[in-house]
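Sample intake — Integral membrane protein
Collected from: Oscillochloris trichoides DG-6
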Amino acid sequence: MRAEDFIQHKRPHWERLDALLSRSAAGLATLSADEIYELGRLYRQASSDLALARRDFPRHQVSSYLNTLVARGHAAIYREDAGGFASFLAFFSQTFPRTFRETWLFSLAAFLMFFIPALIAFVLTFRDPTFGPALMPGAEYVIAQIQAGTEWWQTINTDGRSLSSAEIMTNNIGVAFRAFAGGVTFGIYTLIVLVSNGLMLGVVAGAAQRFDFADNLWGFISAHGVIELSVIFIAGGAGLQLGWALIHPGLFTRRAALVLATRRALRLILGCVPLLMIAGLIEAFISPSPLPLAVKLVVALGSGVGLGVYLLGFRAQERS
């Protein structure tokens, strides 16, 4: 094959890769998930073309061109994105919501991994509370508290609520981070985190329903639970993305697939941190308060609608 024929055949792919690299100059976050996948595919092809050009046309300028193109592709995939206040605003107003929409199936999978065990634990515990200890460590104490009608969350007293808020936020962030980081175990530990937390909620809810304590429990959980659980599902979805990249890297090398998946997953985790802070404040100050259940349900509804608008409401802006 002559160099001219080689160039004519491959030029459209190189030009497309060049266009994607130019668009990603501000970071891969400017590309959609499909475009990032296309970028990786074209980068792999260009790397193969470079090897062929070096072998067959070592003195032709196409070798120099491809060397530059492949170097740009490598830098785009493995670099760290620039920061700045403008990037901070763009991240929370556009990048985080868009990343969620592009990867929502992973969050849905995380939700199912949580919800199905929770439902099973709820049914088993409701029918026979002695199942609780087999499903949740320390269930005997919690079920005894519920059976006695003890609202243990009232230990968050007025004087200690600021400290409790910090502790709650730290705990929630820890759960979300474990669900995310567990992805490097091919998603196995992420699955364990989601299933175990689902079982815990199911046991508590089942016992509360069995001993006529449900109104008390949901009066505490409802206000902060919408945001808190949503964030856990998003973080779990981020972890599942890492696991899937290791299991099925596609056209990428496993390392490149993990790097790209980690970038997307980290965007989700960073976006979740302020949401968990909000949930922690609600859990410390509103959830254990003597406010009527109706008020707490309004808070739950408002937070759910607000979160939905935030994650889904920028689509029109992106299309304009």
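Post-analysis note: Residues 157-163, 316-320 have pLDDT under 50 and may be disordered.
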